[in-house]
Amino acid sequence: MTVDVAEKRRPAHSSRAVFPIVAAAMLVVSVGLWWAVSQDGAGLDTRSALVAGSILCLAFLAGEIFPLRVEIRRETLLISVSELPLVIGLLLMPVWLVGVAHLVAGAIVYLCRRDSWQNISLNLSLILLETAVAGLIAQLITGGPLPEQGPSPLAYLGVAVGVLVAALASAVSVGLTYRLLGPAEPLVRVVVRSMIPATAIVVFALVAYNVWRSPGGPILCAALAVVLVIVYKTYFDFLRQHADLAKMYSFGRRVIGVSSSDDDWRDLLEHVRDQLNASVAALHLDHGSDLSATLVVGPDGAMSEPPVAAGDPLLSRAVQHGSAKVSTDRTSDPAEVAALTARQAWDVMVVPLRSGDRDRGFLEVRDRRSRWGRFSDNDLTLLETLAGHVATSLDNLRLLDSLRNAAYHDVITGLRNRLGFMVAVNEGREHGAGSVMLVELDVLSQVNNALGHDRGEHLLRMAGSRLVEAAGANRPVARIEADRFAVLLDDASEEQVVAQAQRLRAVVGGAYSLNGIEVDPNASAGVAHLSCDEAATDASVLLQRAEMAMLAAQSNDETLQVYRPSMGEVYRRRFQLVTQFRQAVEQGLIVVHYQPKLRLGDREVVGAEALVRWMHPEFGLVSPAEFVEAIEATGSIDILLEHVLDIVLRQMSEWRSTGMQIGVAVNLSVRNLLAEDFLGMVRRSLDRYDVDPTLLTFEITESSVMTHPEHSLPILRELATLGVRLSVDDFGTGYSSLAYLRRLPIDEIKIDRSFVQGMNTDLGDLAIVRAIVDLGHSLGLLVVAEGVEEEAARDVLRTMECDQIQGFLLSRPLSLDRFEAWLESRTVRVPGPEPRTHVLRLMR
Questions:
Q1: What is the pLDDT of residues 45-77, one digit of tens each?
Q2: Where exactly are the transmembrane stretches of this chain (predicted)?
Q3: Residues facing 436 on adjacent strands
Q4: Quick check: helix, strand or coil at residue 288?
Q5: Which residues pair with 594 in a beta bridge?
Q6: What is the DSSP string of 2-37?
Q7: Residues 786, 751: Cα–Cα separation, whole Å
Q8: Exposed, middle or buried, 449 (CB in 10 Å: 0-12/13-18/19+)?
Q9: Among 319, 421, 524, 836, which is least packed, fewest CB within 10 Å?
Q10: Once rounded to an integer, what is the mean pLDDT over residues 321-332?
């Protein structure tokens, strides 16, 4: 028996060194065995030997060309039935004639299949070894040439033992060879997997030989062979279809989560390569008239190839016929042969990525990793199906890019909006930019009233064009609101920043001609210059400072002002909050308010978000947006989290004693994840109050987790293992990367309130909310909408099948006593899933 395993990934230098050594060793052993066999061989006349050898050679050819094929993941196992003619040949012919016929048949097969010389030499050596071992063992058992003894029981025994020992020697040789080439499966597994079919084939051959010699035997053998072929083909087709369906389902799930990163697309190509058992998979993306992007994945991972020209004959054939399957032995077109040579391939399939009425690119696979055969029509159908999934994924990425562009850009001017500008500021800070200029024309309302809104929009577009041209095409420029624009300036000295801002203000503040009417704006500007000791300041703070400076300029009838701390009491207040925080915790001034969360499907109150508040004796009720950022820099954020957890878990324990199962979500800072004993603190708090971990949810922002992903992700996975639920807050802003989202062990995503509140008036926001809901459900996540303040928004979210909502429509954040009063007055108690528990449902 011969078992051929599809070649795995190995270092090329290892293959070059091992193949000649193994082949030479087996050749030496084979020559010695053949010398021993030939000393006791039976002879035939030349004509009889030629006829018998030709018939036997044809039998060996049939066994090699039509093997029993089994594909398992990344390897193709081909069980040759060459033991069948080997058994019959040893019973009827001299051993040397059997060996010559087997060797000639193998050489014809390997040469026609264009195997490498290493494979050819190794497999021909295996054939010599296998035939010599079988003949020698058989002669030793029978004591002489087999054909001279006739079909005796001793001859049957000798042939059976000889062929099985030969199969064992072949299997051991194959297993050891693969071990020399690199990591391989255990030798015992290779041997067992080889010997079981070999034994079955030897027994079948001996039985078939005896049946053939009986009256009516040929007819019976032929009928039995037909039945076996039909059963095998039916069973093999069933297994193949089942495996293809499983792989297709896996591929479909993988396509859902693919992002625009090259790593994701390389993983997808690796999946295509594995599913079709191909050596190489390539993706050609069309960004214009030529194919300008090519990704190629081969046995050793990503490969470097230049983009394929749009006039490539294989691609042209795929466009013309809907697909293309070309190999060196199936085409005589010189251009196609040249294209195959350029790809260093002999068998290629190409399918267009169809999207509507145009092709977005092509998906291509080259050369089956098994050296036994070409790609089939079924493989081409499978590739067409995979290409359909890839084309759909490309369309989805373009849709998401379009939605994101709509969310981050102003409809009238095409410039960035406030949200897009804040993202640009945060990104620009990493590349040496940080000062922000805010300029207001202070003329839009007059133009709208006097000339109409269309002229006002024209004015805005002209002002935006002036700023872009003056600032430079690569510098972020945004329309914040009305006729107020923002520009991200270099993080240079204050004098340089002021000079640049003065130039931009003069350009945008010049006169405009609207239908022959000169409009002279009263432009004023404010600059927030970032000093070295303020590196942690984010975009919203910079915009706030720039706005304060601009308002100061307007109040003083000046054209430009630079932000100064004296313009407000922000930093004095911030300093007070930092220094008084620990004392406030000890005095119980840090309290928790609760905002309920509602499940839309059955109006059940499923939990609440814990929102920390500071009851400051001087400033009154201080929101976390004001003091959390301040205490993060001092390392006190861990004290705040432990304090909040203590309050929340104690309250949850009290609610449980009254039969109420209410989950609570607590916001988590990235600095909490970096704390050394964070997990231990969470475990101790849960154990102290005996709270079910599944009732506790930690809300995190994706951008905060990705600040230190190597440390944050393991901690989040530990929390998930503990049973604590994880939620991505403010989804749709910050990173919002699908590649990162797949890595997070999360249970839900929360749509940012800016999209929810704008979706009733902005189609872009509505499309983004719908896309996020569909994306979350496709990934098996709960989707929560924040900032629901109107019944219309609630109704739209219900039609989208959003899972839960939270916002002022239900309730503002409430202190504990007011929250419990809210529950008592607005809900009814319904028996819960556990004994002596109940859930709360809103009254109709």
A1: 666 667 766 777 777 777 666 666 554 444 445
A2: 17-37, 49-66, 86-112, 124-142, 154-178, 190-209
A3: 488, 528
A4: coil
A5: 610, 814
A6: -EEE------HHHHHHHHHHHHHHHHHHHHHHHHHH
A7: 6
A8: exposed
A9: 836
A10: 83
Q: Say whether 317 sits in a helix, a strand or coil.
A: helix
H/E/C letters for each residue in 364-379?
EEEEECCCCCCCCHHH
Domains of the chain plus CATH, in order, are 3-213 (1.10.1760.20), 255-394 (3.30.450.40), 409-568 (3.30.70.270), 572-842 (3.20.20.450)
Residue 158 CA to residue 831 CA, distance in Å, equals: 79
Contact assessment for residue 636 and residue 813, using Cβ atoms and an 8 Å cutoff: no
Three-state SS at 685: helix
Three-state DSSP class for residue 808: coil
- DSSP character string of 162-200: HHHHHHHHHHHHHHHHHHHHSS---HHHHHHHHHHHHHH
Which residue type, as a one-letter code, is found at position 530?
Answer: L
Q: Residue 628: pLDDT band by 50, 70, 90 thresholds?
A: confident
Task: Give the whole-angstrom CA distance, residue 400 versus residue 402.
Answer: 5
Residues with Cβ within 8 Å of 270's Cβ and at least 6 positions away in sequence, in order, are: 281, 297
> Are the beta carbons of 336 and 326 closer than 8 angstroms?
yes
* Two tokens, residue 165: 């020992």
How far, in Å, CA of 71 to CA of 277, rounded?
9
Half-sphere exposure of 251 (CA within 13 A, CB side): 26
Bridge partners of residue 291, in order along the sequence: 286
Residue 164 and residue 643: Cα distance in Å, rounded? Answer: 75
Give the separation between CA 394 and CA 21, rounded to whole angstroms.
Answer: 49
407, β-bridge pairs: none
pTM above 0.85, yes or no: no
Copy the structure tokens of residue 356: 């509507």
Distances (CA, A) of 772 to 192, 419, 420, 768: 52, 17, 18, 6
Q: Please, what sign has the CA dihedral across residues 184, 185, 188, 191?
A: negative
Number of neighbours of residue 556 by Cβ within 10 angstroms: 10
| Cβ contacts of 808 within 8 Å, gap of 6 or more | 787, 788, 789
User: How far apart are the C-alpha atoms of 679 and 243, rounded to whole Å?
Assistant: 42
Write the DSSP symbol of residue 413: T
pLDDT tens-place string over residues 119-164: 777 777 777 778 877 777 877 787 666 665 556 777 778 777 877 8
Residues 687, 692: Cα–Cα separation, whole Å: 9
- Cβ atoms of 691 and 657 within 8 Å: the answer is no
What Rg do the C-alpha atoms of the chain give, in angstroms? 38
- Reduced to 3 states, what is the DSSP secondary structure of residue 510? coil
Residue with tokens 């029978």: 142
**Token pair of 442 as six digits:** 């202070």
Beta-sheet strand order (sheet of 524-528): 477-481, 484-490, 433-440, 524-528, 560-562
Reported confidence tier of residue 288, pLDDT bands at 50, 70, 90: very low
